[in-house]
Each structure stands twice: as C-alpha cells, then as structure tokens.
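Course exercise 7: structure representation. Students receive a sequence record and must write out the corresponding structure in token form. The form below is the worked example handed out in class, using Acyl carrier protein (140 residues). Read each field label carefully; the graders check that inputs and outputs are placed in the correct fields and that the protein name is recorded exactly as given.

STUDENT ID: A-19
EXERCISE PROTEIN: Acyl carrier protein
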Amino acid sequence: MAAITPASLFLQSRPRLSRQSLATTRISSLKSVSISNQKSLSLRLWPLQSCFRVHCAAKPDTVEKVCKIVRKQLALPEDSSVTGESKFVALGADSLDTVEIVMALEEEFGISVEEESAQSITTVQDAADLIEKLAEKKGA
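STUDENT ANSWER:
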C-alpha cells in the first residue's frame, strides 16, 4: 500500500505471514523516489505539481545496453560514468548526437522511434524505457 501527498510519501508493505512485521518507510520533502522489489518491479515517482506520475523503469540489462551505445556514439571512455540518470546534454551530446544515438538504438533493438517520442528522450533511462515500451508493442 502507498499513500502519497505532495510533500511526503508513506509506504507500507503488508506481511505475507502473520509472523512478519510491517515494513514502513516515510520520505518527507519528496522530490523523487525509486522503489523496487525483488521481482524486478521498479517504480519511480516524480512530483508533478500537486500530484505524482508513476513510471515503470526498464530492465537493468536494457539500461546497460543503452549506456554502452551512448558511450560509443559520444566516444566516451569505457570507464566513464554513464547511468540511467545521465542526461545526454551533461554527457556532451548536441542535437545531432542525440539523433545519432536514437538511430543506433533503433538499429540495435529493431524498433522505430517516432520523431515526437525521440524529442522527449533526455536521459539514458528515458531511452531505455521507450525501447521497452516499443519492443512490447512490436511483440504484441
């Protein structure tokens, strides 16, 4: 169960067996929070004025593949820090670099990204999430 207010988040997990205790977490002055469980379900919550949007995160292996492609396209050293939260602009990408990254992702994952969707990609995580969404649509 999760209860959300604009300034805080209250999470409570229900025990499966009566012997287990309740796990409770409260986060105040919330800007963003990531929640994951042991079955690879991840949720990200961001404040959006006085409400929140829930975002299902991509699989870690998808994020890692995107990181590898971004490093290659931007000619970054292999040991450079590129994570899901990395913004393309912060990594030194201009608009042409971003287009080339999207093209490389399309080729690698066998998907087609619409221009409108491509313009909304600003981070590695955005790209990975979009890839999984498009791959799921393609497979359906």
